[in-house]
Amino acid sequence: MQTASYWHRESDGRIVCDLCPHACRIAEGGHGLCRVREARGGQLIAAGYGRVSSLQMDPIEKKPLYHFHPGREILSVGGWGCNLRCVFCQNWSISQRTVRDSACLPPAELVRQARDMGSVGIAYTYNEPLIGIEYVLDCAKLAREAGLVNVLVTNGYIQPAPAADLLPFIDAANVDLKSMGDAFYRKHCGGSLAP
């Protein structure tokens, strides 16, 4: 089990996740809204660490990035869960559930596969990669050392401190803004616009 980053314990024993603006208060044995950050043994566990739902080569334009390594393919990896609940999600089958017994892909193996496939890098995508920031950060550091680029496809729903830790290792990002209205975010996405 991988201990999560970005959390603290309150005086009542509950764990508070400090990764995203939801600031989930999690009782022992429970999980946050994302379903992959769990309170176990008095600490927060990154239960989705390395658990892969999707892995495939994609044209980089599918991210969609059109002026970043155009015409190249990138190894895309996705996990499980999300910190939003968009009613229109095209990947709801992986973003709105968690499969605990899915294959675990260690960071070094993901980077090796990207290199062996001739990928320009790794795209963290399909579900919300930020809820698995520990895995993304470990992979991104190894990918950078191997001369590969890191691409983040995200809803951007993260607190400033964890974002500041991750962004130096990201070469390109697509932040999916769902709406310019807070009411839309609250009604259709289970979040708020400001963060």
Helix run count:
5
Strand order across the largest sheet: 6-7-8-9-10
| Strand composition percent | 15-25%
Integer-rounded radius of gyration: 16 Å
Counting helices, strands and paired strands, the structural category is alpha/beta
Largest sheet: 5 strands, mixed
> What integer is the average pLDDT?
95
Low-confidence stretches: none
The count of DSSP E runs of length 2 or more, i.e. the number of strands, is 10
What string gives the helices and strands in order? EEEEEEEHHEHEHEH
Overall 3D shape: globular
- Share of residues in helices: 10-25%
Quaternary structure type: single chain
The rounded distance between the terminal residues' Cα atoms is 29 Å
Structure description:
- Strand 8, helix 3 and strand 9 form a beta-alpha-beta unit.
- The strands form 3 sheets. Strands 6-7-8-9-10 form a 5-stranded mixed beta sheet. It has a 3-stranded antiparallel beta sheet with strand order 1-2-3, with no helix packed on it.
- The protein starts with 6 loop residues before the first strand and ends in a 6-residue tail after the last helix.
- The longest helix is centred in the C-terminal third of the chain and has 13 residues.
- It has 195 residues and is an alpha/beta fold.
- The protein contains 5 helices and 10 strands.
Give keywords.
five-stranded mixed β-sheet; single chain; three-stranded antiparallel β-sheet; 195 residues
